[in-house]
Fold this protein.
Amino acid sequence: MRLHSALSVNERTYPAGSEVPWYYIYPFFLVHMLGFGVPAFLMAYSSHPASVKMLYGFGVFSIAIYTVFYWVIFGRDEIKWMFINAALGLFGIYSQIGWLLSFFGKNIGDYPVYVHAIPFLYFVLYTFLIRHAILDITQSREDDNRKKRTEYGYIAVSVAIYIISYCLERR
């Protein structure tokens, strides 16, 4: 993966434009984001939810930090598209959060819209990272044909998962 800004990883500084092995970035961020995303999900949706101030204080701070890292790693254009795709993918996010809540006997409509903002943003950041990891792991980023096939596959699998989770949550 090619950096858009300088970054230090494992005590080595990589200048903007340099290649960083995918295994330095994705495992760390996927585990790290899960470590912050799960508590945010629990703060929002547990049977004893945290206050909205606590949820937003925790969530806005960490989401802002992740967004800065994404900016450095992926660049401005990719961040722009992350938020555009998030706006377009609200159905997918809604179905996934609804499906996850169904495991706890809850419904997404049981919560006011503002409670969903932080878990939704974590979902956006996490799926963005997964997409980039798939592009890099399959070595599709530099080959336009392979990238197109990988992206179409990613969309098809995502839509299938969204539809299945939506249907499972409704049964």
Notes: The chain has a mean pLDDT of 88. The first strand starts at residue 7 and ends at 9.
